[in-house]
């Protein structure tokens, strides 16, 4: 994943964080919960992401961080979530965070929506079939460099960066990946674009 590495010497003083990769059974098959960060935020503004954020001193562990942040951002009830696995942390070089991905199953879904519009603009359950659809997959080209990374155009969002890298790996490991056109390139910084194959995002 571009810009994301296993922890090294530079990650020792990185701030700890966690994200919740929450899978559920939706009307269109298995899906994953994504949100879009508010445009007014100082960092990662308007960027699609998994629920999650920085660790608090009161958090027991990174699972606690991921569940707390999801509750604060989208109103998730942690009682309806079964944690399946905790992946090794990844160092986000640009923001200097050490992020732990927490994989979970949403066995008892609840209604979710932005709790604070100053932090989260909207929330969407995205079917894995839409993420795997070749029509929704592109390569993101980073400005003023030769770096390329996978991205997804779904539900009115251009999902890129850390989130897209994780989704790309999970689709491949889970056997969901389909052959797609790696020459379909869009430039970073991205602009929001709604592909014809995707419905408008729920508000």
From TrEMBL:
Residues 14-148 form the Nudix hydrolase domain. CDD domains: NUDIX_CoAse_Nudt7. Keywords: Hydrolase, Magnesium, Manganese, Metal-binding. It holds the Pfam family NUDIX. Its cofactor is Mn(2+); Mg(2+). GO terms for molecular function: coenzyme A diphosphatase activity; metal ion binding. The lineage of its organism: Bacteria, Bacillati, Actinomycetota, Actinomycetes, Frankiales. It comes from Candidatus Frankia alpina. PANTHER family: MITOCHONDRIAL COENZYME A DIPHOSPHATASE NUDT8, NUDIX HYDROLASE. The keyword Lyase does not apply. This is CoA pyrophosphatase. The keyword Metal-binding applies.
């Amino acid at each position: 994943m571009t810009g994301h590495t296993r922890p090294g010497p530079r990650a020792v003083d990185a701030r700890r964080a966690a994200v919740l990769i929450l899978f559920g059974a939706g009307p269109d098959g298995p899906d994953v919960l994504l949100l879009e960060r508010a445009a007014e935020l100082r960092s990662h503004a308007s960027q699609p992401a998994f629920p999650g954020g920085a660790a608090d001193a009161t958090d027991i562990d990174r699972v606690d961080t991921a569940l707390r942040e999801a509750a604060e951002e989208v109103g998730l009830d942690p009682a309806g979530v079964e944690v399946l696995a905790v992946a090794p942390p990844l160092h986000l070089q640009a923001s200097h965070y050490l992020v732990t991905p927490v994989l979970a199953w949403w066995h008892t879904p609840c209604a979710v929506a932005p709790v604070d519009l100053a932090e989260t603009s909207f929330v969407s359950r995205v079917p894995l079939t839409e993420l795997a659809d070749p029509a929704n997959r592109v390569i993101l080209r980073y400005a003023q460099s030769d770096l390329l990374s996978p991205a997804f155009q779904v539900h009115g969002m251009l999902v890129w960066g850390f989130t897209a890298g994780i989704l790309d790996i999970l689709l491949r490991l889970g056997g969901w990946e389909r052959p797609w056109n790696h020459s379909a390139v869009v430039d970073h910084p991205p602009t929001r674009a709604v592909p014809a194959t995707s419905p408008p995002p729920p508000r």
